[in-house]
Amino acid sequence: EVQLVESGGGLVQPGGSLRLSCAASGFTFDDYAMNWVRQAPGKGLEWVSTIIWNGDNTYYAESMKDRFTISRDNAKNTLNLQMNSLKSEDTAVYYCTDLKNYWGKGTLVTVSK
């Protein structure tokens, strides 16, 4: 059974940091480019970042490229997202996904005073 389980969300003040993780199982993790996608309250899905199978190339949405860092550990089947300088507009549910077949249930990040 394929599982993607996100963790690390929570409440943080503006300007703060959080590190999200996604534990993958049930498929060959290092065969896949992986992504973070988010959904803010009342809005649609927004692509955040992509990392290719070996981590050599990463891509970010423009508004996040200087604040977020995606990484992966293929030995541990884990995908990570380090988020710094968080803003209220980063409040969303963050999903780990391959964008085709596999999605986690998400972890909620709330940026608020």
Describe the structure.
There is one protein chain. Helices cover 0% and strands 49% of the residues. It has no helices and ten strands. It has strands at residues 3-7, 10-12, 18-25, 34-39, 45-51, 58-60, 68-73, 78-83, 92-97, 107-111. β4 and β5 (45-51) form a beta hairpin. The protein has 113 residues and is mostly beta strands.
List the helices and strands and how they pair.
Blueprint (H helix, E strand, L loop, with lengths): L2 E5 L2 E3 L5 E8 L8 E6 L5 E7 L6 E3 L7 E6 L4 E6 L8 E6 L9 E5 L2
Parallel strand pairs: 2-10
Antiparallel strand pairs: 1-3, 3-8, 4-5, 4-9, 5-6, 7-8, 9-10
Which key phrases capture this entry?
mainly beta; globular; single chain; about 110 residues
Q: What pattern of helices and strands is seen along the backbone? A: EEEEEEEEEE
Net shape: globular
What structural class should be given to the helix and strand makeup? mainly beta
Beta-strand content estimate: over 45%
Low-confidence stretches at least 5 residues in length (pLDDT < 50)? none
Number of strands: 10
Largest sheet: 6 strands, mixed
Strand order of the largest sheet: 2-10-9-4-5-6
Summarize this, please?
This protein has strands at 3-7, 10-12, 18-25, 34-39, 45-51, 58-60, 68-73, 78-83, 92-97, 107-111.
